[in-house]
Amino acid sequence: MADPARARKLAKRISQIVASAIEHEVKDPRLDYVTITDTKVTGDLHDATVYYTVLGEKLDVPPDFAGAAAALESARGVLRTKVGQGTGVRYTPTLTFIADTIPEESKRIEDLLAKAREADAEVARRSAGAQHAGDADPYKAPREDTEDAEADEFAEEESRG
Questions:
Q1: Which of 47, 132, 142, 154 gives a 20 to 30 Å CA spacing to 27?
Q2: What is the CA radius of gyration of the chain?
Q3: CA–CA separation, 35 and 54 (whole Å)
Q4: Distance CA 151, CA 88 (A)
C-alpha cells in the first residue's frame, strides 16, 4: 500500500497528463469539449479513475456524453501510454473514465435553493400583517412578594403541627 500523499500526487499528475494529451495529442473532435475534473488512484497505485465532464458547443446545445465516452474508450491505450511516460512509475495504472455528475447535481441544488427562497419570501409576505393569537404577554406574571411570604408562613405552620 502506497503512501496516501504519493497517491494524491500521482492522481494530480495523471489529471494533468490526460488533460494535456486530450487537448494537444489526441485528434478526436468528440473530445474538443471534454474537461478532466478529478482523478482518484487506488492505494496500490494500479488503478486510476478519471472523472470528466462534457460541455456543449453552445449554451443551447446539449453535450454529447455518449460520443465523448466512446472517444475516451478508444483513446484509453494512447492516454495510458502518455501517463506511463509522464509519471515514471514502475506500473502504469489502468485508466477508467467516469462522467462527473457534479455540474448536474449543483444545478439541481441551485434549483432547490431557489424554490426554498421563493417559499421563504411567500411566508414573509403572508406574515407581514399577522398578529399573535394569544395575549400580548403570554408568560405568567411572577407572584407578588406578599403571596410568597404567606405561602412560607403556611408551610412553616404545617411542618410544626
A1: 47
A2: 33
A3: 6
A4: 89
Who contacts 40 (Cβ-Cβ below 8 Å, separation ≥6)? 11, 48, 49, 51
Share of the chain above pLDDT 70, in %: 86
Q: Locate all alpha helices (DSSP H) within the chain, ordered by sequence.
A: 4-24, 65-74, 76-87, 102-126, 145-160
Round to whole Å and give the CA distance between 130 and 97: 56
b/e code 108-132 from CB counts within 10 Å (16+ = b): eeeeeeeeeeeeeeeeeeeeeeeee
Least confident of 77-81, 122-126, 148-152: 148-152
The neighbour count for residue 32, using CB atoms within 10 Å, is 14
Is there a contact between 100 and 51 (Cβ–Cβ < 8 Å)? yes
Summarize pLDDT for 9-53 with one digit per residue, the tens. 999 999 999 999 999 998 888 888 899 999 999 989 999 999 999
For residue 157, pLDDT beyond 70: no
